[in-house]
């Protein structure tokens, strides 16, 4: 670890790395602050452009977008009671009441410190935990790997979006899309319909851009046409005359921030959970443990600090399953996996051995990015009202154009652009029908790895599926997956009976 850290230092402190981290942070702050948009849209939009950057610099820029967006979502939540991101919903509970009491600046500064310290805590855990976990993962064979992927897909499918059956169907369709292209072993074409453009499978960039960016633009355009949002930015006191957050106020919130950071870090490390659940659990815990004279939910700095720390603490830890097992736990990690893949890098237990200095450079850059978040966050708070005035009717067509340019620039194939719009329409239809694209996306990315694990296991066992029931780790994950599936089916049937 020490050797990798030393080798990583000279990669981190370069002008290019710092520049793109700052640019990513700025983009994330703006996208997070615009209601309806979020960091995932920005990351998906800019992934193609990282193709021309050093892999480490590109990944850091994308992760900086996520960091910025997590805090950016708190700004309209506190000022206008309009969460910029779903996770910021719990920041709005106390933050907006503080604004109504004339403490907007104090609430935003608390949110910024909570977000920064929660993010820092999570990044430090990632730095020290990734290598030991990767070493343990090297002892995992094909049967265990296949079982872990199946377990992860089941968890993501059932816990994202609130409709377990639809989530599982979405994941199943993603696995099917992952089989398009030439067979991994026989090299025979599968589901290509005679198109040579699909011989290598469905390209990652058009699918990412279509499902996450284009479909979101379609959703927002429809929303603007049906019920346009008119955000009135009132004369909020964010200038020097406003009540500031004093160091004594911050010191009182540190125990809450530390506890919420620990909870959020754990939540982020579990595939299928995420920032919204992290914010909810931390806000609920802060409310439970709050003293009688400072009830959370009625305009408390403690509630703001807890929600933001829990939300942001998922940022670093969601990379733990990705860099150790190659399994993305949420949308942001799935997008980062896509960015790795377009550079020909496959995350997983061997990545620490093959690209140790690069990985540690990413970890150190994430820690350094928290300093950028603090400095740029204070500046963004002062400019918040101007950022909220951006008209989405002008912004959305520009995003669509950038998606077109980014997809075409990656491969220079109009076929990929057409594919992007096909997946955009698919993603839009899924959202309208109550499906979430995340299980589809993660299943598509993990599908080839799952297939490879299953087929290698069957090769080792001479074609017998008994190999999956002879390994303790595989048995454990399959048992948990089966139990979870039974419980989900039972809950679904009970809901239908009540209805």
Structure overview:
The protein has 23 helices and 2 strands. It is globular. Helices cover 72% and strands 1% of the residues. Helix 1 packs across helix 18. The protein has 499 residues and is mainly alpha-helical. About 1% of the residues have low confidence. Strands 1-2 form a two-stranded antiparallel sheet. It has one domain. The termini are far apart.
Structural descriptors:
499 residues; mainly alpha; two-stranded antiparallel ribbon; 23 helices; 2 strands
Oligomer: single chain
Q: Helix- and strand-based class?
A: mainly alpha
Give the overall form: globular
Mean pLDDT: 83
Ranges with pLDDT <50 over ≥5 residues? 230-235
Number-wise, the strands total: 2
Q: How many domains make up the coordinates?
A: 1
Rg, rounded, reads 22 Å
Write a compact overview of the structure shown.
By secondary structure, this protein is mostly helical.
SSE blueprint:
Blueprint: H1 2-12, H2 15-33, H3 39-46, H4 55-72, H5 74-80, H6 89-100, H7 104-137, H8 142-159, H9 164-177, E1 181-182, E2 189-190, H10 204-226, H11 247-269, H12 275-289, H13 301-312, H14 314-317, H15 320-325, H16 331-342, H17 351-354, H18 356-382, H19 384-387, H20 392-411, H21 414-432, H22 437-460, H23 472-498
Antiparallel strand pairs: 1-2
Helix pairs in contact: 1-18, 2-3, 2-4, 2-18, 3-4, 3-10, 3-16, 4-16, 4-18, 5-6, 5-7, 6-7, 6-13, 7-11, 7-13, 7-18, 8-9, 8-22, 8-23, 9-22, 10-20, 10-21, 11-12, 11-13, 12-13, 16-22, 20-21
């Amino acid at each position: 670890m020490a050797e990798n850290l030393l080798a990583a230092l000279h990669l981190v402190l370069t002008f290019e790395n710092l520049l793109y981290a700052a640019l990513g942070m700025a983009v994330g702050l703006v996208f997070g602050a615009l209601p309806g948009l979020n960091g995932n849209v920005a990351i998906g939009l800019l992934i193609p452009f990282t193709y021309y950057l050093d892999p480490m610099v590109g990944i850091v820029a994308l992760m900086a977008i996520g960091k910025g967006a997590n805090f950016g979502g708190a700004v309209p939540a506190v000022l206008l009671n309009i969460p910029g991101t779903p996770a910021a919903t719990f920041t709005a509970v106390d933050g907006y009441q503080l604004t109504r009491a004339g403490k907007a600046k104090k609430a935003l500064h608390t949110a910024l410190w909570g977000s920064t310290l929660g993010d820092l805590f999570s990044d430090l855990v990632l730095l020290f935990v990734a290598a030991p976990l990767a070493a343990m993962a090297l002892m995992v064979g094909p049967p265990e790997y296949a079982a872990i992927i199946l377990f992860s897909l089941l968890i993501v499918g059932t816990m994202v979006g609130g409709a377990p059956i639809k989530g599982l169907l979405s994941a199943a369709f993603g696995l099917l899309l992952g089989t398009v292209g030439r067979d991994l072993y026989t090299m025979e074409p599968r589901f290509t319909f005679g198109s040579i453009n699909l011989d290598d499978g469905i390209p990652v960039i058009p699918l990412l851009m279509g499902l996450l960016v284009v479909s979101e633009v379609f959703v927002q355009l429809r929303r603007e046409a049906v019920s346009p949002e008119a955000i009135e930015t009132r004369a909020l006191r964010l200038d020097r005359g406003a009540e500031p957050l004093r160091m004594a106020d911050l010191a009182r919130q540190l125990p809450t921030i530390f506890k919420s950071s620990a909870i959020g870090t754990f939540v982020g490390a579990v595939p299928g959970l995420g920032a919204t659940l992290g914010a909810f659990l931390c806000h609920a815990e802060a409310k439970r443990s709050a003293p009688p004279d400072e009830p959370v939910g009625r305009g408390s700095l403690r509630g703001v600090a807890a929600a933001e720390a829990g939300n942001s603490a998922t940022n670093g830890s969601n990379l733990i399953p990705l860099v150790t097992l190659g399994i993305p736990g949420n949308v942001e990690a799935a997008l980062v996996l896509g960015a790795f893949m377009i550079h020909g890098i496959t995350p997983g237990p061997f990545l620490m051995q093959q690209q140790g200095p690069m990985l540690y450079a990413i970890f150190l850059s994430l820690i350094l990015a928290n300093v950028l978040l603090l400095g740029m966050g204070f500046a963004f708070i002062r400019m918040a009202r101007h950022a909220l005035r951006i008209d989405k009717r002008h912004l959305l067509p520009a995003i669509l154009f950038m998606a077109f340019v980014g997809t075409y620039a990656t491969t220079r194939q109009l076929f990929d652009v057409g594919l992007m719009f096909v997946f955009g329409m698919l993603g839009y239809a899924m959202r309208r029908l109550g499906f979430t694209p995340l299980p589809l996306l993660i299943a598509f990315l993990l599908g080839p790895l799952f297939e490879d694990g299953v087929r290698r296991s069957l090769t080792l066992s001479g074609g017998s599926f008994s190999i999956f029931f002879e390994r303790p780790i595989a048995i454990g994950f399959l048992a948990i997956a089966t139990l979870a599936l039974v419980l989900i089916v039972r809950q679904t049937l009970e809901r239908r009976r009540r209805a």
